Amino acid sequence: MDPKHQRRELNDGRFIPVLGFGTYAPEEVPKSEALEATKFAIGAGFRHIDCAYVYQNEEQVGQAIRSKIADGTVKREDIFYTSKLWATFLRPELVRPALEKSLKDLQLDYVDLYIIHFPMAMKPGEDPLPKDENGKVIFDTVDLCSTWEAMEKCKDAGLAKSIGVSNFNHKQLEKILNKPGLKHKPVCNQVECHPYLNQSKLLDFCKSKDIVLVAYSALGSHRDPKWVDQSLPVLLDDPLLGAIAKKHKQTPAVIALRYQLQRRVVVLAKSYNKKRIKENMQVFDFELTPEDMKAIDGLNRNLRYCDFLLGVGHPEYPFSEEY
C-alpha cells in the first residue's frame, strides 16, 4: 500500500484508491443531489468515484468530476472513475455501445474501471428491469466468457483502463480465469461486504488469484425498501461497533470502513450527507488493534442486505453458492 496516495496495485499494473465514494441513491432522491454530493466528496479528498449505468445519474456525476477539473481541484488522471455494465447489455455486441453510452453521459474519454454489474443476463432493451405480465424479470442467456471477451476489447480500445466484475461467486470467477485465450484477468470483484457479511472465503479466494475485493454496502446498505428487507438489523447500530468507535473517538461508520482497509479490501462509502462525507475521510487517521479486528470478525452472520431475489431462478444467480 502506498501511504502517500493510499492506493492498491491491480493485477494489470494500474492503481485503485482504497477508499471510494459511492453514488447510488434511491429513485426518489433528486439527481441534482448526486452532482452536489460528488463535487463535495472530491473537495473533501475522495479520488475514487463509483457509479453505474443503472443508477441513472452518470450525467450528473460526470458533471461534478468535470467541474472539479475545471476549478483546478483535480486533474482527470487524479480521479479513478468506475462504471458498470448493466444486466440487459451482457450480449457481447451490446457491451461496447453500453460503455460508449456511459462515456457520452459522463462526457469523459475513458473510465478507469468498467465492471460487469451482475452475472445474470436480462432481456436486452431500454428497460433496466424487463418484466413479463406476471411481474417476473425476463432473463436472457449469455455466455459470460463471451461478455468478458467484449470487455477485453473495451480495454484494448482504451475506453476502460481496467476491467473487472461485480457480484460474482468464486465459480463464476473461475469460469473467466480458466477461459481459453484469456487476455486480461478481472482486476476486481465488487461485492456486498460488511461486518455482518465479511466474505472471508471469497476474500481469501480473490487474494489467491490477485483479484482485489471491493466492498459495497460496507456501512450495511442504503435500506432502499425496493431492494432491502426492512426488518433486518441496522449494522451501524451494532453495540460492538459503537463501543470500538467510542474507544477510538470515531463514528461506527468509520470503524466499519477501517475494518475493510485493514483486511486489504477496497471500500466504498456511500453518503450524500456532507458531515458524514468528511467524517468518512478520517478512516486514515487511526488503526484498529488486532483485538478490535478479531471482535469485528466475530460479528459475521452471513447476512446479505442486497440478495437481489428477482434473480433467483437464473442459472447464473450468484448467491446460492456459499461464496
From TrEMBL:
Q: Which residues form the NADP-dependent oxidoreductase domain?
A: 19-300
Single annotated GO MF = oxidoreductase activity
Against SUPFAM superfamilies, the record matches this protein to:
NAD(P)-linked oxidoreductase
Residues binding substrate are: H117
Q: Which keywords does UniProt give here? A: NADP, Oxidoreductase
Q: Where is this site: Lowers pKa of active site Tyr?
A: K84
Pfam family example for this protein? Aldo_ket_red
Q: Which CDD domains match?
A: AKR_AKR1C1-35
| Active site annotation, chain numbering | Y55
The family line of this record is: Belongs to the aldo/keto reductase family.
Q: What is this protein called?
A: Dihydrodiol dehydrogenase 3-like
